[in-house]
């Protein structure tokens, strides 16, 4: 897993790549929480280059969503591939997260 970010004021765009699973979830959680602690109130998490995502990672995303929502913030997910999008649809999380098909679409919202 690799994670990078670009911060513009209260908005952070986070690009994750590789496999997001039980082994990498703690690192991802710490990374996202640090951005929130540093003042980000909107996180755009780009999953375009993620090859695998498990339930532990879904738990991380849900916890970050809850934390930001309590403070009036927002988590947007960029999911351009049907295989990852299907996970969010099956679990009902497509109704929890703002899901965009591209970073361009996320920037417009």
TrEMBL record:
Gene3D superfamilies: STAS domain. InterPro entries: Anti-sigma_ant (IPR003658), STAS_dom (IPR002645), STAS_dom_sf (IPR036513). Residues 13-109 form the STAS domain. Pfam families: STAS. Belongs to the anti-sigma-factor antagonist family. This is Anti-sigma factor antagonist.
